[in-house]
């Protein structure tokens, strides 16, 4: 184990330790970028707000460009093509890219991390597996606070996080086998979105076999996709949405509380809980999803909007006041 103090180089400690490094960061501010380029690395701080990584010097990692970002942007902690990365108990703030960016990493764990005011993404895990984001706080990102992107075998756990002031609080983007449990998604443009959509030049898409349960999704009232350099600039206008399933297959949405979500601007989705097709964007219809025992109340203009074949979904025991279609089964006032 190596202990690093403020004023010393985290990168130097990582490189000298090599594979299997255990780096402990003492309390204080570290102004540098960090590139994890060895297997089985553990990077642990003294706690959120106590150990802080902020922009400064350091190496620029030779890894794939961050999606939806200029190639010149800089992320706080980056890793690619390695296995067994664990990051915990620190704050990453103010970077022009992502707070934490993992690409093609097998076994990546981010725990008790605060990612705040990083310009593009908070915690962004792409084309990776064994993904874990637990008890983190992510705010102030132009796109997702926490995102799994193109992780077809994510085996992911996104649990107990607090996400706010992002375009998308939690974004499961063309990723499968993820469990999204007991998170607070608040004051975003959309609290939680699962999206199957093919992009030109990107890997095969799909969102399958996920569980979304026990989340508190409320007061998502920001507007994204409106200003050229604002929240969600590359996407369509979205505002006032709690949870959306777009083109998903076999996703179970169970016992979530979705309330007090109201749009403050234009939105392509018309309800706090939305199920829809992504066929027009290279995806698929929403099929074989299970929507059970959710409370969707106090939202505007609608609590739910189901743009899907209702015979291909299992919907039961939910509570809502107003929805489309008005006679949809499985919803009670």
From TrEMBL:
InterPro entries assigned to the protein according to its UniProt record, in alphabetical order: Beta_helix, PbH1, Pectin_lyas_fold, Pectin_lyase_fold/virulence, SCF-Subunits/Alg-Epimerases
Key words of the record: Repeat
Every Right handed beta helix domain range: 98-265
Top-level taxon of the source organism: Bacteria
Alphabetical list of PANTHER family matching this protein: F-BOX ONLY PROTEIN, F-BOX ONLY PROTEIN 10
Name of the protein in its database record: Nitrous oxide reductase family maturation protein NosD
UniProt source species: Nonomuraea typhae
Organism lineage string: Bacteria, Bacillati, Actinomycetota, Actinomycetes, Streptosporangiales
């Amino acid at each position: 184990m190596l202990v690093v103090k403020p004023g010393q180089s985290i990168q130097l400690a990582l490189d000298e330790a090599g594979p299997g490094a255990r780096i402990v960061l003492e309390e204080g501010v570290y102004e540098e970028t960090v590139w994890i380029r060895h297997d089985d690395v553990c990077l642990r701080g003294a706690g959120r707000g106590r150990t802080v990584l902020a922009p400064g010097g350091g190496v620029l990692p030779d890894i794939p460009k961050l999606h939806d970002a200029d190639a010149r942007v800089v992320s706080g902690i980056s890793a690619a093509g390695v296995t067994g990365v664990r990051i915990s108990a620190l704050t990453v703030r103010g970077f022009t890219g992502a707070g934490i960016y993992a690409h093609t990493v097998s076994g990546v764990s981010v725990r008790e991390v605060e990612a705040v005011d990083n310009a593009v993404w908070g915690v962004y895990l792409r084309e990776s597996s064994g993904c874990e984001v637990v008890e983190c706080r992510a705010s102030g990102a132009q796109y997702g606070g926490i995102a799994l992107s193109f992780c077809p075998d994510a085996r992911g756990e996104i649990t107990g996080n607090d996400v706010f002031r992002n375009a998308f609080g939690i974004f499961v983007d063309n990723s499968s086998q993820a469990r999204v449990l007991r998170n607070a998604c608040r004051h975003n443009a959309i609290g939680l979105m699962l999206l199957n959509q093919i992009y030109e030049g990107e890997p095969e898409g799909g969102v399958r076999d996920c569980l979304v349960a026990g989340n508190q999704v409320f007061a998502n009232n920001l507007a994204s996709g409106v200003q050229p350099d604002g929240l969600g600039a590359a996407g369509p206008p979205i505002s006032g949405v709690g949870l959306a399933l777009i083109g998903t297959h076999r996703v179970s949405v169970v016992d979530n509380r979705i309330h007090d979500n109201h749009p403050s601007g234009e939105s392509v989705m018309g309800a706090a809980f939305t199920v829809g097709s992504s066929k027009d964007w290279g995806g698929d219809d929403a099929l074989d999803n299970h929507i059970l025992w959710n409370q969707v109340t106090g939202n505007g203009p609608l609590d739910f909007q189901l743009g899907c074949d209702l015979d291909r979904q299992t919907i039961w025991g939910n509570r809502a006041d107003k929805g489309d279609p008005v006679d949809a089964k499985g919803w009670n006032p």
